[in-house]
């Protein structure tokens, strides 16, 4: 009987320790899909860190969506100039915003589009194909060790396929051009032959 209660006590302690470890473990934020056509705010730390959700309704990274058409992803620094970023899609580098000088000014109070349009702010737009996307943003330059930025994804219009078959009017013009070239060549040949006989 004594060994049974000791076993039960050990099992209870092990269960409590396991529960405590799970309860104390840091929680990983789950990614949520983003909506195309709207700006999202992200916060960031020092160089090499990855952007996190920012102010407002921005879900946790990675930012995911699926598009039936190509998309344009715009990324811009916010507030003060000097930060630069790299965009990844499904873990693959897509491109980077250019490094810019840290100069007085910025885009505080102008909103995300104002920051994107401001030439002293690091920003870029990247085109991705149709399909499932999972975006992350890495900090490449951060003089102040952190800040805010913005990103958005916009669906591109479906492209109309380009016709490679000439239209009937084009064929007629091309035929007329060939007749004209042939006529000129024949006249030159006839004129050359007449001069040689003379």
How would you explain this protein's 3D organization?
It is a single chain. It contains three helices and ten strands; from the N terminus they run αβββββββαβββα. The protein has about 200 residues and is an alpha+beta fold. It has a domain at about 30-155: Sandwich (Jelly Rolls). Strand 2 and strand 3 form a beta hairpin. The radius of gyration is 32 Å and the shape is elongated. Mean pLDDT is about 80; it is low at about 10-30. It holds the Pfam family PEP-CTERM.
Q: Features of this protein?
A:
198 residues; Jelly Rolls; 10 strands; 30% helix; 31% strand; Ice-binding protein C-terminal domain-containing protein; Ice-binding_C; signal
Mean pLDDT: 79
CATH C-level label of the domain at 31-155: Mainly Beta
In terms of DSSP E residues, the strand content is: 25-35%
In CATH terms, what is the fold-level topology of the domain at 31-155?
Answer: Jelly Rolls
Largest sheet, in brief, is: 5 strands, mixed
Shape assignment: elongated
Radius of gyration using CA atoms only = 32 Å
Distance between the termini: 136 Å
SSE order in H/E notation? HEEEEEEEHEEEH
Strand order of the largest sheet: 1-4-9-6-7
Helical proportion, percent range:
25-40%
Number of strands: 10
Uncertain segments are 11-29
The CATH level-2 architecture of the domain at 31-155 is identified as Sandwich
Count of alpha and pi helical runs: 3
Secondary structural class? alpha+beta
